[in-house]
Structure formats: C-alpha cells, structure tokens
Amino acid sequence: EKGIAQPVPNSENWVLHISVTSKVISESSLGYKSLTQRHFMSGILSFSSIVLPDWCSTSSCRRGVRMAAAHTTHAGLSFEAMAIKPPSHPTYDLNGIIKLALAEDAGNRGDVTCMATIPVDMEVEACFLAKEDGIIAGIALAEMVFQEVDPSLKVEWSRKDGDFVCKGLQFGKVYGRAHSIVVAERIALNFMQRMSGIATLTKAMADAAYPAYILETRKTAPGLRLVDKWAVLIGGGRNHRLGLFDMVLIKDNHISIAGGISNALSSVDQYLERENLQMEVEVETRTLVEVKEVLQYASQMKTSLTRIMLDNMVIPLPNGDVDMSMLKEAVELINGKFETEASGNVTLKTVHKIGQTGVTYISSGALTHSVTALDISLKIDTELALEVGRRTKRA
C-alpha cells in the first residue's frame, strides 16, 4: 500500500520498508525480518516475491533496492573475528547464499506452522547438540544465519570451528524469539551438518596423508563452492583452485584438443605471456611417458608450470590393496623440480600409503561430492518455553 526508502540510523546502508496490509516486510543489509505492526515474527518472505508499487520508480528508491541486494557484512560478526576464515573469492556473496536459502525455505508465505502454533511473543532458549563424534564446522556461518533472520537473537558457543565434539555434547545456545529461532533452525543446521561432515572426513584424511597435504576439488555442491571449501580448511585441509579463474589446470580434454601435452603447455605459456598474467599452472599426466614428456618440455622451454598431477597412478589390486609403484616412479622422475599431486583412487584406506610416496599434495573429490553430514540437532528448552507460555497465558 505504501513504502519509504530510508537510511538506517548510523549506517550507510539503505533499507526498504513496504507495508502490505497488516504486515511489514523489511529487507536490509543486516537481515530479513517479517513482523506485523505488533512485532509478530512470522518468518521469512522472499523479497523477490513482493511487487513494488508504482511510486518506487525514483532513482533513490532503485538505489535502495540495489544496495539491499549487494554483498554485506553483519554487525558484530566479521571474517577477521572467525576462528578460520572462508577462502577469498572475487564474486562469491556468502550473505547472498544465506538469503537465498532462507527465501527458498519461506516461499511467499513465511513459516505457516510457526504462525499457527507458536505464540508471537514467546522467547525460548535452544541448545545445539552433537549426536555423533566429529569435527564441528559452520559455527560462524550458523551465527550469520541467525543474525540474518533476527539481529536480536543472542548466540553463545562453547566450541569453535575446527574443534572436536563428542556425541551428546551441548556446544552452543541461542536465545530469543521462538519464531525467529525456528525459522533459522533448518538453514543453520543444514549448513553446519554438511560443513561438519566435510571437516570430519578432511581431518581424518589430512592426518593420514601427512606429510602430504590433502586438497579438495571443484566437485562441490552447485552454489556452495565457498562453503564446501571453507569446511575443508576448517578440517585441516588445503584448498585447490577456487574456480576456473585462479589457476591454469591442463586436463585430458585440453590436451586432446591441443594435440598433446607439449602443445598444451606451449599454448598456456604463450597465453600467460601475452596477457601478462602470473598464476599457478598444473598439468595432468596419466602415464610415465606423459610425465617424461612434461619434464622434457620444461627442460627445453621457459615455462610457467608449477605442478604436475599424477592421475590414477594408484592402481587397485584384486585383493583390495593398492599398487604404488607407478606413483613412486613418477615422483622419483620429477625429483622435486615441480610440486606433485596424486589424484584418483584416494580413500581413507589408501591415503596414508599415497602420502608416503613423496607427493606434495593428494586431492580427493570425495571430500565434497560424497559428504556424509554430521548429525547435529537444535533442541528448545521445553520447560522455559512452557514457563513463558504460562506467564503470557498462551501455554
């Protein structure tokens, strides 16, 4: 019916308030809110589902909407304060992913079950409970989710990202409006459970791979690239390239199209020189013949090559063991001239043997493409909820 674009006090950010019948939907850089004029927390509504009125065609209003959708940070929560920071990415909007997750959950109505069953003014305490042993990850991201839903929520943790949690441990609490907590619950847990599963497997593999470093790959869930790679860091692994933009990785299809490894390497060297680019260059090899060809090229030409991938040189045996002889020979041929990366047939059972061959890195797609979530729950303190309900005569 009406709306006003106005700056938030003491902030450079803009917020767009739209009044639709009795509900006020607020979209800001600090978070989504959905409440009635009586401060009724009804859940999240997708901002994109709201039709803007005709008056919202002025340049100032358009500026307000654009700024609300831009990359933002939350008050009181910064990357610098996190135990382990997420990888740096030039275009990835972590807050945008949170907003998208909340919006797809809420649809165009918000949490109808909350609105039907939970008193609007009830406040509760909820505890995070580990239901199995593992490495906890996603604490910082979960806190961002709660702040996005309702900045008035208070979150406390007894553990930090990367810590071990045992089954039955209560490692965090959130206080505030019951509606807000329930709306944020599933999104926060989805992130935490996935990230904790990745971190737990990464920790096990990283420990077994020593002295080699464990890497993930680009085999991540679409839209969750940064989240998955962040979890690997939390688990003690290292990040492979973030995407197609930050490293040259010459793989089998590039080699086939270029007409061979030497041609592919030559084309890359020419491209980087022409474009005045400096970045890591890795080439995939599948046989000892290809390893020798790469070494011969590097001995004759000035090259930007920094790493050689040794793909599928871990050979599975019928008895369930693995043959490492080909991988060991490749590492000996390279003799420290370049970093080496073992890839293929990497499992928790094989990674220790691979790490003993002298390779620099071991990459595993299974860290992120076949993740088993760590079981975590959020339990509301029922007695406290009933006590509040009795006080408000709504229990």
TrEMBL record:
The keyword Plastid does not apply. Residues 198-379 form the Quinolinate phosphoribosyl transferase C-terminal domain. Its EC number is 2.4.2.19. Coiled coil: none annotated. Transmembrane segments: none annotated. Keywords: Glycosyltransferase, Pyridine nucleotide biosynthesis, Transferase. It catalyses: nicotinate beta-D-ribonucleotide + CO2 + diphosphate = quinolinate + 5-phospho-alpha-D-ribose 1-diphosphate + 2 H(+). One of its GO terms (molecular function) is nicotinate-nucleotide diphosphorylase (carboxylating) activity. Residues 111-196 form the Quinolinate phosphoribosyl transferase N-terminal domain. PANTHER family: NICOTINATE-NUCLEOTIDE PYROPHOSPHORYLASE [CARBOXYLATING]. This is nicotinate-nucleotide diphosphorylase (carboxylating). It comes from Gossypium aridum.
